[in-house]
Design goal:
Belongs to the iron/ascorbate-dependent oxidoreductase family. With about 210 residues, this protein is α+β, with helices and mostly antiparallel strands. The chain has five helices and twelve strands. It starts with 6 loop residues before the first helix and ends with a strand.
């Protein structure tokens, strides 16, 4: 895009990515504390790196309503989304209905990924979401994905497993799951069911 580079732009993006990473860490710490694990946060926090991606969804032809991004659950631990106020992001609610999100200009959307759902032993839900475009404006958004470092094992803390909440998923290497989710066999599995197909315990295990 810029053969000679664009230092100011790069510095701006680096600063924003750093701040979003801090926001994600704060949210994760709040989640950990909400489960009474605040004093053990260092041992239960998933170590990750942040991948920032810019996305552009083109406006559809006049008077048409079309898919900009297929329905899916996220495969990173979590995602923070910032958009340009052109609506399009939708989440699936009960009975297969879809709800369009309308975010305020200064807000971010935090999306739980499949690994975080497994870490929480099913307490957190990885919401099915998509982008549907209408109107005459393109949609620009920024997504910051929390990608676990190499060798990270996703496992539920023992404090989140008991008779009322038996262990739902086996411990697994994040990268093994990530590669499975984009493999040929997984193409025939609904995105929201891939975690279940890869790591479910049947029957669940209680301690």
């Amino acid at each position: 895009m810029w053969p000679d580079g664009h230092l100011r732009f790069c510095n701006t993006i680096h600063t924003m990515a750093t701040q979003i990473e801090e926001l994600n860490k704060l949210i994760c710490l709040m989640l950990i504390d909400s489960y009474g694990l605040g004093e053990k946060w260092e041992s239960v926090m998933i170590n990750y790196k942040t991948l920032v991606r810019f996305m552009k969804y083109m406006a559809p032809p006049p008077r048409e309503y079309e898919r900009g991004l297929f329905a899916h659950t996220d495969k990173p631990v979590s995602t923070i989304i910032c958009d340009d106020q052109v609506s399009g992001l939708e989440i699936e609610v009960k009975d297969g209905q879809w709800m369009k999100l309308s975010l305020s200009p200064s807000s971010f959307c935090f999306v739980v990924g499949d690994p975080l759902k497994a870490w929480s032993n099913g307490r957190l839900k990885a919401v099915n979401h998509r982008v549907m475009m209408s109107g005459d404006k393109d949609r620009l958004s920024l997504a910051a994905f929390a990608i676990p470092v190499e060798g990270t094992i996703i496992k539920a803390p023992k404090e989140l497993i008991d008779e009322q909440h038996p262990q739902l998923y086996k411990d697994f290497d994040f990268m093994d799951f990530f590669l499975f989710a984009f493999s040929d066999p997984a193409k025939h599995i609904d995105s929201g069911e891939q975690l279940q197909a890869f790591a479910s315990l049947s029957p669940p295990i209680s301690y």
